[in-house]
């Protein structure tokens, strides 16, 4: 919601009358959370599920002006609806803003992209920023969004920006994941943008030209098995239809990475040169020493073996699948039995 606060600050700096500020914010910013299972959570017999639904409701009432919840409603007569919920800012009463009947269950492909596709009809405005549930914002960065939107000129359809991995202090595995993300979010993104000009769409927090995307294949590809990585195929689609993708470094958002062994396994090692350029030689040397002392080299060898095994398996079997690693904050240690059962074939047995 810091985008809304940033708009308020800018409006007051530009001497917009105080009585018109909230209306201006509401006209320029809307936060749509697409939670396809909200209807199931609300009616579940499980106390934990109902607690999750109540937590969502609490957020809706806390931010009635801007926050909307999109979900899929399945009625007893086997009808499906895309529903957008809101809260009246004045009376604080529940509101069903839109309810669109669907021809059937909309989740026919991969769950995450289908979730985006069913909810995009409820968004408004010219631009759409796609955010994951594990991302955060900062007020100082939110003030830069207006400058970021100025990048949409000519046939530029996607504008990406950097990510700050705030979960790096969560342990050795979290540091490994943050280091690999640092490389992908800086040097690789820069190089793919220029001089290669081959940056596509790698997820969030990319900002889309929404009006163009809605008439040119959408922001996410959802075919099961084929589009396991739904984001990059949307980027392919954008470029093949004549759109351009750029990357801006003057703005960033926060991001928390997976911190369990299973969730983290599969990323790249960072380069000392990149850290030197970004943060200075002393910090670069210290960070790499910490990684070396924590045996990151052993972890990344194992990660490479894991990726190689599954890549070879996909070539042999002609099949790929989406694995949901989750976005939770891991505070429990994994048992050796579970880790061995998961990775024994990958790391120790040659098939």
Automatic annotation (TrEMBL):
Transmembrane segments: none annotated. InterPro entries: Glyco_trans_48_dom. GO terms for molecular function: 1,3-beta-D-glucan synthase activity. One of its GO terms (biological process) is (1->3)-beta-D-glucan biosynthetic process. It comes from the Eukaryota. Residues 12-270, 273-349 form the Glycosyl transferase domain. It holds the Pfam family Glucan_synthase. GO terms for cellular component: 1,3-beta-D-glucan synthase complex; plasma membrane. This is Glycosyl transferase 48 domain-containing protein. It comes from Prymnesium parvum (Toxic golden alga).
């Amino acid at each position: 919601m810091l985008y809304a606060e940033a708009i308020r600050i800018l409006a007051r700096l530009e001497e917009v009358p105080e009585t018109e500020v909230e209306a201006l914010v509401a006209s320029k910013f809307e936060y749509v959370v697409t939670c396809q299972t909200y209807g199931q959570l609300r009616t579940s017999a499980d106390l934990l599920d109902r607690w999750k639904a109540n937590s969502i409701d609490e957020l809706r009432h806390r931010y009635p002006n801007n926050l909307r919840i999109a979900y899929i409603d399945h009625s007893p007569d086997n009808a499906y609806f895309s529903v957008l919920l809101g809260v009246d800012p004045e009376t604080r009463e529940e509101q069903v803003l839109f309810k669109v009947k669907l021809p059937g269950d909309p989740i026919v492909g991969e769950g995450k992209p289908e979730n985006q596709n069913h909810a995009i009809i409820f968004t408004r405005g010219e631009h759409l920023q796609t955010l994951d549930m594990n991302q955060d914002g900062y007020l100082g960065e939110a003030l830069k969004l207006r400058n970021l939107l100025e990048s949409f000129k000519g046939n530029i359809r996607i504008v990406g920006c950097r990510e700050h991995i705030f979960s790096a202090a969560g342990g050795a595995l979290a540091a490994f994941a943050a280091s690999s993300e640092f490389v992908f979010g800086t040097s690789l993104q820069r190089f793919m943008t220029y001089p290669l000009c081959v940056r596509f769409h790698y997820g969030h927090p990319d900002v889309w030209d929404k009006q163009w995307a809605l008439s040119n294949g959408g922001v996410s590809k959802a075919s099961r098995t084929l589009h396991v990585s739904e984001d990059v195929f949307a980027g392919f689609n954008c470029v093949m239809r004549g759109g351009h993708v750029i990357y801006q470094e003057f703005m960033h958002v926060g991001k928390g990475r997976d911190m369990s062994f299973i969730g983290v396994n599969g990323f790249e090692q960072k380069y000392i040169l990149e850290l030197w350029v970004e943060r200075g030689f002393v910090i670069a040397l210290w960070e790499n020493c910490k990684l070396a002392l924590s045996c990151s080299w052993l972890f990344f060898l194992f990660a490479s073996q894991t990726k190689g095994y599954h890549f070879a398996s996909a070539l042999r079997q002609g099949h790929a699948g989406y694995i949901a690693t989750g976005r939770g904050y891991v505070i429990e240690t994994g048992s050796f039995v579970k880790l061995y059962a998961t990775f024994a074939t990958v790391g120790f047995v040659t098939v």
